[in-house]
Design goal:
By secondary structure, the protein is mostly helical. It contains 16 helices and 2 strands. Helices cover about 70% and strands about 0% of the residues.
Length: about 300
């Protein structure tokens, strides 16, 4: 937490471009910076490198929009949670960028700037605003990756699984970089985890058959994780999400192994919280079959071997 403050501090002495025009060179550098932000997985270096590209792109609107996008990434906590102050800062930077574009008469010429609003809406948890902005942007941006990804985010947040699956396939087809491909996969991962978490809660109220839900979504989820795995071995959030998915699938030993992988790469709150939940589950499992004393329930270092 607080990465957005590190980012703002890093950029405090930057001299941002004075030029207002939206040149092709600036657009290209902006796109490279956006791809670096898309690859952010908890370490600040990609964000620092990205904002240097934005600073040097030669276009003030692109630079400010890029900074807004980087602030969204740096404000992420876990799940659907973001640090509100960081998002407010990002909105302020984007508002400045959009005002500049409007004043130059170039409205509609820079979808690369407009799409950043989708990520701010998503971070605020305002899915209706997200949908409204997708509807406004989409007619002229049918093949724009991030606009279509925003639509996928909406469908995933609304848990419209069949529509999300179709949009996911469309977004994958539009992806041009590895980071873009991973973003599409991550959307579906979040949807699978949300569905299984909801099913687990509803099962306690006898409203759903959790075994049927696990059968329906489990295999589909594993397919997405398998597609991500070759390129995600050093990604702590990949291992955490896989661990969380397995937790809701009641595969506690596998979940514990993946949790250990996540924490070996990066100590972060969401993974540490899951470790506590797993300590009980795995310890109870071992105790029930008589492999460890009940007093060892919380010893994940003993219960889970690398």
């Amino acid at each position: 937490m607080g990465d957005y403050k590190l980012l703002l501090g890093h950029c405090a002495d930057y001299e941002w471009p004075a030029e207002m025009s939206l040149t092709e060179t600036a657009k290209s550098m902006f796109a490279r910076g956006i791809d670096l932000v898309d690859g952010y997985r908890g370490w600040m270096e990609p964000l620092f490198e990205a904002v240097m590209l934005f600073r040097d792109c030669g276009s003030r609107p692109y630079a400010f929009a890029g900074m807004a996008y980087a602030l969204v990434a740096a404000s992420y906590i876990d799940g659907d949670a973001y640090e509100l102050e960081g998002i407010e800062q990002g909105q302020a930077w984007l508002d400045e960028a959009l005002l500049m574009v409007s004043e130059t008469g170039a409205v509609g010429e820079a979808p690369e700037i407009g799409f950043v609003q989708l990520w701010l809406d998503r971070a605020k948890g305002d899915i209706e605003a997200l949908l409204a902005h997708v509807v406004r942007l989409e007619p002229a941006n049918e093949a724009h990756f991030h606009t279509q990804l925003g639509k996928l985010h909406y469908r995933c947040r609304a848990q419209r699984f069949n529509l999300a699956q179709a949009q996911y396939e469309k977004v994958l087809a539009l992806s041009e970089t590895r980071n873009q491909e991973m973003l599409a996969h991550q959307c579906m991962v979040a949807l699978f985890i949300a569905i299984m978490a909801l099913a687990t809660r509803e099962e306690r109220l006898k409203k759903v058959d959790l075994a049927a839900m696990r059968q329906k979504y489990g295999e589909r989820g594993r397919v997405v994780f398998a597609a991500m795995a070759p390129h995600s071995q050093r990604d702590p959030w990949f291992w955490h999400n896989y661990s969380l998915f397995c937790y809701y699938m009641k595969q506690y030993m596998r979940s514990a192994r993946y949790n250990k992988e996540a924490l070996a790469l990066l100590e972060f709150g969401a993974a540490k919280e899951l470790r506590e939940r797993l300590s009980y589950r795995v310890g109870l499992l071992y105790a029930l079959v008589g492999l460890v004393p009940l007093g060892w329930w919380g010893r994940m270092d003993v219960l889970v071997r690398g």
